[in-house]
From TrEMBL:
It comes from the Bacteria. GO terms for molecular function: oxidoreductase activity. This is Multimeric flavodoxin WrbA. The keyword Flavoprotein applies. Residues 3-105 form the NADPH-dependent FMN reductase-like domain. Keywords: Flavoprotein, FMN. Gene3D superfamilies: 3.40.50.360. InterPro entries: Flavoprotein-like_sf, FMN_Rdtase-like_dom, ISF_SsuE-like.
Amino acid sequence: MARITALYGSPRREGNTSVLLRKTVEGARQEGALVEEFFLRDLRISPCLELYGCKETGRCVIDDDFHRVAEAIQESQGVILASPIFFYTVSAHTKIFMDRCQSLWVKRYWIDGVPFGSKDFVRRGLFIAAGATKGKKLFDGVLLTARYFFDALGADLWDSLLVRGVDAEGDVLQHPEHLKTAHEKGKEFARMLQGAAKKD
Ligand SMILES: Cc1cc2nc3c(=O)[nH]c(=O)nc-3n(C[C@H](O)[C@H](O)[C@H](O)COP(=O)(O)O)c2cc1C
């Protein structure tokens, strides 16, 4: 059975990215995946303090809720991250979590000795984002951020769901086509992970 960690990065519990992620999770569960959900806004997670205590073992030395999420990710084959676009990047809740994942980057590249640029990924990532505007470059910055965040987790960016033109809480509910895509992507993600597990 595929295990997936789902990260809600919006400060709004019923925000657009939360609605999309919930639909994705629903789809993945329908395909039999075991999904653990974390609302980053509800967790006590310090920003990275650049102590580099993680250099010894790959474990961050700050004692807070980060470890619960990191452990779930390490036991997962799939990670889904959903964040609103804030100033062309992820939300602060999401970015604080991402920066703490530098400890996982240290483990992967410095401790375990994975060569830089390696495509040897043990998990897959799915990224969901929503923004108010409709500009062509709206997701350019955040896609790089997401790609290198997943890389630190030992995951490649398998796919993304990017929604423009939604602003107020729940605006996305007026777009059944996006909800359908989110649901389908969740199903496809779980099927892909299950297929990959069978090959191993
Ligand atoms: C602090 C802040 C910064 C934002 N920056 C952008 C931005 O750079 N580009 C954009 O299109 N929308 C921006 N928005 C709008 C949100 O991306 C939009 O409302 C989105 O649907 C929120 O998703 P959520 O409901 O999942 O939180 C910003 C909103 C806030 C509160």
